[in-house]
Amino acid sequence: MDKPRIAVYKFSSCAGCQLQFINFESELLDMLGQIHISYFKEATSLVEDPPYDIGFIEGSVTCPHEEKKIKQAREDCKVLVAMGACACEGCINTLKNYRPIEEQVKRVYEHPEYIDTFDKAYGIDHFVDVDAYIHGCPVDRDELREFVVATLMAKKPFLRPHAVCVECKLNENECLLLRENGLCLGSVTRGGCGAVCPSWGRPCFGCRGPNVDANPEALVEIFRKKGYPDDEIRRRFQYFSGETPAFRKGAEACV
Ligand code: SF4
Ligand code: SF4
Ligand code: SF4
Question: Does 193 sit in the ligand 2 pocket, CB within 6 Å?
């Protein structure tokens, strides 16, 4: 049987998720025995024409040429996978969604007249159908491996459905929300990262998007009782995943 042909695309992103592929290091060689890389510009200058069996998309769609490119990628790939928070939820690219675009473009670019950008940034499923999502900023290497191996074996990958708090408790961390009133989104955020931020004393910013039964409005009430102003709570919900329905509810619950 021919090896599946893989394409890894970059849209508006920092390239950190693609790097997780390369970070497989020695395992990458085993993987290369099972897959064929047809298009992966960060790793190789070899570019083969489509069709591809699996397309991994890193990055969100923020400008007209990216809209065309993602629609072409959808046509070229049998299976399309959103890889990382930028592709899944829009991630920090969506920070531009909350201010007038003209103001931001002027502030950032010396020659704003050359900039052709959308007012808003979105995850790729705003434009095309997506077959699977691998969450995180960046994606977790173990989860990416699980996904690739399961796909090669035609199995459903086990992507964690629980909240970050579950992993935080398994790590026996003291809760930052209780200990120091930390503005932690762990209770409304999908796990799978091993609660890495709270384990290092930093609140969860929600980079993996909402978990299945997230209750952002209840968390807003708790943050308010802890004394946080609505403006700060709203910005925390908007930071990584503000365009998801659940986190939008959290942001909108703030006046
Ligand atoms: S999800 Fe995070 S690590 Fe991945 S490309 Fe976007 S900003 Fe970079
Ligand atoms: S620190 Fe955050 S992730 Fe950990 S238990 Fe508390 S709310 Fe949940
Ligand atoms: S703890 Fe939260 S912000 Fe940190 S990696 Fe996990 S999901 Fe992302």
Answer: no
